[in-house]
Amino acid sequence: MKIPAPAPPALDPVRWLNNQPYLLLSLTALFWAGNIVLARHVGDHVPPLTLTCIRWIGTCLILLPFAWPHLAHDWPAIRARLPLMVLLSAIGFAFNNAISYWALQYTQALNALLIQSSGPLFVALWSLLLFGVRLTGAQLAGVTISLAGVLTIILRGDLSALAGIAFNRGDLMFASSLVSFGLYSALIPRRPAAHQLSVISFTTGCGALLLLPFSVWEFSTGATLQFDLLTSATLVYVLIFPSTLAYLFFNRGIALIGPNRAAPFFHLVPVFGSAMAILLLGEELRLFHLVGYALVLAGVVIASRPASAKA
Would you say the pTM of this structure is higher than 0.90? Predict the structure, then answer.
């Protein structure tokens, strides 16, 4: 009698996604693009420090039921690296997000997207200064090509538009958030050997605690939180997509391919932002959009492929 071959194991979509760094980092950029567009739109409804504090309290509470067994198991490792974990909470969750939301009250979306494009350079700079990790030729070429694509989209194919961009204090604030997140990106591979749910739940909770006194101060200055449909929808989106999912995806992507190969995916944020404007706001798709998209994608592919990690 012929014994039938065993059926192939069923595909686990979560496990499959957890091992797709390019998809994880692309989705992260998509969620963060929506976060920038939305935060600029609701600046009058939700004070920036309070929005950030609520964001991380909510994210921690969402993750904690799933993370608790891992957190209890990993606590000795986390406690042994507590200064680093608190630093990651401060620079990757508290300061970075609060200052970027605050900056969007003073700067235009064009400036924010332009500054966002410098993200990979800050990651590379911190990796070099702290750990002596240099960009390879392929990584540098990829970052340069994708940056050219971002500029093509933002400047609408007209380099002379650079002369018309005026920077203000909001731009400096937004740039400081990228300096902070570049440091977070360079340091996250040095986190304790713990489950990613343990790391995220601790850093979001710690980041919220660090922000709480500043949120109280913000309300003492007369800031108010408007409870309406727009505020509710904003909080739901912010808690689920650019917070819970994006940071899980981003940390996993870095763990799989490293910070320098992951950094060019920052350039997808303005690409997705412009695509949202076309799809949601009815803007016209132009040739410079297509050229910019092609350059960004080419640069990301060149910089993130495995061969680019070799010197």
Answer: no
